[in-house]
Amino acid sequence: MPFFSAEPAYRHGTPTRTAVLLCNLGTPDAPTPAALRRYLGEFLADHRVVEISKPLWWLILHGIILRTRPAKSAAKYRSIWTDGGSPLAVWTEKQAKLLRGWLGEAGVPVLVRHAMRYGNPSIASQLDALKAEGATRILVLPLYPQYSATTTASVFDAVYAWAARTRSVPELRFVNHYHDHPGYIDALAKKIETHWREHGQGEQLVMSFHGVPERTLHLGDPYHCEARKTARLLGERLGLAETQLRVTFQSRFGKAKWLQPYTEPTLIELAKSGVRRVDVVCPGFTSDCLETLEEINQEAREAFLHAGGEQFHYIACLNDSPAWMAALSDIAQQHLAGWPLQPANPGLRDASRERALACGARD
Ligand SMILES: C=CC1=C(C)c2cc3[nH]c(cc4nc(cc5[nH]c(cc1n2)c(C)c5CCC(=O)O)C(CCC(=O)O)=C4C)c(C)c3C=C
Ligand SMILES: [Fe+2]
Ligand SMILES: [Fe+2]
């Protein structure tokens, strides 16, 4: 066995290609306890996600969490599952397909694939597929606008791990974040304005971001600041006064302190203080998923109404919105700048090229 991957020898005349790999978190293959156990087992074993002593965490994960959580989570996934599968998978695949079209229209002929950090299709399998298609330059573009070590850096880890066992490593570039990209902010604003045009405007706009342990902020993770900046820019773009919006953090996991204020307690407090209608948007999620469709649009809605609120308006994620696809295409193009996009001398078949190929020269 070779230490590094055995790869087909370079095929003479194969054009070299540039590629974009869109990466998202991942989702279970089915809304069943068995599929959830596999997915959560991979996800929660990632030291980037749960940063506590590995032996202790292994005992908690295998002794408690993977025995109880899969069945509970599977029931939640069943409530949002679609004919096409998990919403996160459906939207991510569609975004890759649309991005291919947008970049093609912009005259940027690149390969585009999508991959999941946990579950399928894995980052390694999609990098292998891109290499097999001739990709020699790959831009890794996570679908997380705000950088966090728990998400973005973990995607990068998976790419490095693949590269570490690969013989002929492509040129790689990584997008860290785009929390303040004007196209991203504008796409969010358009989504909200469209909702307001159709349904009127609520008394409060709640911007709910996925949380992370508060400790990570003190250890230097920029996620909190980037989320706050996204919220500030979005509020300014919408012309909202500070009193008209709240920035909150959802999806707390475990007993430690996470970023605050928490989403659900804030909604309950708003209802109790007499706010009758809230509009809730989740700017950190580029596509709808369990955390938005179940946790926000079902659980948080229920909590707000139960506490005396009258109207709860959930504003869907960016998903396949044209403004978002335009922004994503722009973000990709900015990071592709300077890379040759076309194969050098495509189709050239002259004598000097034949001589060069004969002695093993590449395109
Ligand atoms: C255990 C700690 C977790 C951290 C830290 C965390 C950070 C984090 N997550 C997202 C985006 C998503 N998370 C999703 C689901 C999800 N997240 C955790 C835990 C942590 N996330 C769990 C255990 C789960 C699975 C569901 C469950 O059992 O509760 C999802 C949705 C996936 C889907 O299939 O729909 C997304 C998206 C971000 C952006 C983030 C840090 C910034
Ligand atoms: Fe999460
Ligand atoms: Fe901050």
Q: SSE layout and pairings?
A:
Elements: E1 17-24, H1 33-44, H2 54-78, H3 87-105, E2 111-116, H4 123-132, E3 135-142, H5 149-164, E4 171-174, H6 182-199, E5 204-210, H7 214-218, H8 223-238, E6 245-250, H9 263-272, E7 277-281, H10 290-306, E8 311-315, H11 322-336, H12 351-358
Parallel strand pairs: 1-2, 1-3, 3-4, 5-6, 5-7, 7-8
Helix pairs in contact: 1-2, 3-11, 6-8, 6-11, 9-10
Bound molecules: ligand L6N33NVT and fe (ii) ion (FE2) (2 copies).
Structure report:
- By secondary structure, the chain is α/β, with parallel strands linked by helices.
- The chain has 2 domains: 17-178 and 322-336, Rossmann fold (3-Layer(aba) Sandwich), CATH 3.40.50; 182-315, Rossmann fold (3-Layer(aba) Sandwich), CATH 3.40.50.1400.
- Helices cover 47% and strands 13% of the residues.
- It contains 12 helices and 8 strands.
- It has helices spanning 33-44, 54-78, 87-105, 123-132, 149-164, 182-199, 214-218, 223-238, 263-272, 290-306, 322-336, 351-358, and strands spanning 17-24, 111-116, 135-142, 171-174, 204-210, 245-250, 277-281, 311-315.
- The protein has a 4-stranded parallel beta sheet with strand order 2-1-3-4, sandwiched between helices.
- The relative contact order is 0.15.
- Residues 344-353 and 355-363 have low confidence and may be disordered.
- Bound molecules: ligand L6N33NVT and fe (ii) ion (2 copies).
- The ligand C=CC1=C(C)c2cc3[nH]c(cc4nc(cc5[nH]c(cc1n2)c(C)c5CCC(=O)O)C(CCC(=O)O)=C4C)c(C)c3C=C binds next to helix 2, helix 5 and helix 10.
- One fe (ii) ion (FE2) binds at residues 224-225, 228.
